[in-house]
Write the structure tokens for this entry.
Amino acid sequence: MNHSSALVDQPVVTPSATTSTRVQMLDVVRGWCMFFIAGGDALCLSLCLAFPSLPFAAWMRSQLDHVQWEGFTFYDGLFPTFLLISGAAFTYSWKRQEARGVPSAKRWMRLGLRTLLLIVLGLFYNGALSQTDWHAIRFASVLARIGLGVCFAAIAYANLPPRWRWTFFPIGLLAYAELFAVCGGEVPYAMHNNWAAAIDRVWLPGVPDASGFDGLDPEGIVSTLGAILTAYLGMLLADLLRSAWRYKALWMVLGGLLLLGVGYGCAPWVPIIKKLWTATYVCVAGGWSLLFCSGIYCLTDCLRLHRWFAPITLFGTGALACYLLPKVFDVYGASWRLLGGVTQVLTENVALHRAVCASGALVLLWCSVWVLRQAFRK
């Protein structure tokens, strides 16, 4: 699933403050997203299978997977929440560089290099080095989407006057929905043979054949436009956090409710589809993200309880390592070798075995990220 980069931002600092003021919520929310992306989903699913009689087990299982096409689950909201926070964190880095007098050209060069780095790391994650056929390499990736989404959102954000920044998001949503209406043909949001899939088949190498959607890549070309809007929404959130407005958590709640109303209200005409990152998906995902951010903000920055979230915060500040390490180091296999025999002696419940090993894998991953952070600090 972000340096001033989308995946590995260090704790952010408000440059306009006379003393360094850290927005704890950003790292905590990003940490929760990475917790589930890095293996928390497998832990929760295993617990649901181990204790199926629990009243919420069936519902939780349904929420810990993507919907096939239309609809929205908890799991569908993780990536856009991460992307939204990445957009917010970018503005802190950008303004910190401004305060330090970093020339504009150098700031844009850093942004471009960061975007390129995430695209390259995305290729590594997709196994590009193991391929000998150019057309078999999947160029689209989660990391590339984060890099491109934040980069293009930053271009709009940095070049618009502050009082006009808020207008770009609704205008962009309307334009994005209209693009589907104009280019999508008679059935612009069809599961099969839609126009976004046709573009991916022609212009995007390495679309997974197993996607089952006629060449549509879930991180494809057209849907990246929606991801840009999600990242831009995060930049607007950062403007709110830096502003002198009172009751910021309340404004987040109101903004979230407004987005949810628009998203679910327009769903009969513009379906909520993650694989196409439709305009209503931007609204619904953004709405739930803002509601979650408001709750965490109250706990971490208003009530100053951020220390309670220190373990989960590490997943946020070391998100890039959390995402890439399992590709290099089989943490689940290592956890099984350490704990598998003990759990089999204690219980015959296979799902509980998996839950224990998933917990061990998360602990090993957390320790690995902590060691890496300590090493780089030195």
About this structure: The chain is about 65% helix and 0% strand. The two ends are 26 Å apart (CA to CA).
